[in-house]
Write a structure and sequence with these properties.
The protein is built from eight helices and nine strands. By secondary structure, it is an alpha/beta fold. Keywords: Hydrolase.
Length: 231
Amino acid sequence: MITGLAHRGYPKKYPENTISSFQAALDLSYSHLELDVQLTKDGVPVVIHDTTVNRTTNGTGRVADYTFEQIRKLDAGGGQQIPTLKEVLLLAKGKAQVDIELKQSGLLYPGLEEQVLETIQVAAVQDQVFVTSFDHYAIVRTRELSRDINLGLVLYGATPAVFPLAKEINAKYVSVKHIYLTDEFVHRCDEAGIQLIAWTIDDEHDMRNLRSQYPHIWACTNELERWITVF
């Protein structure tokens, strides 16, 4: 098994955040899938990165303005549908861990945290997932709703402010844009027992540097086949 995160599946070859994309990552034996979750108008957690369907489907408009029935009629590429979170979790069950990124922005999706936790429970994959977000208030709410779910904090840049919060909510994962990694930040994560994730690395020089300097850091990438020998 390859210890790395398949970013939105295998988007270099398949439509991102679709069943075909995630299946391709599983076929390559990646240890983790990374995906993005938003809520439809009627409260169904669906896997799509943007707050609108414009870029990745043949539709237009906000995800939040589509019912589940309506959003399923869109083509997400090659005839693929936008999958539900439950579908992807069941696909990965027993095969890979899943990094579920909440695409929460303030209160754009009221109830997103509750619906995601409920889906995890229904799929019975509590020990196979961790929930992350750039919106740290969403992660705090997730901890308030569940004492046991594994949590992570996503950062664009490294900051010492993340460590007190991670300790307070018992978050075991921190994801950082790879250009901000330093020996000091890596050391502090190691001291705190935090698994550090570097995103998103597609350049060969950057990937080889990461693997040589910090072999214990997980890398998130779109270039799945390219890094098999590097991992």
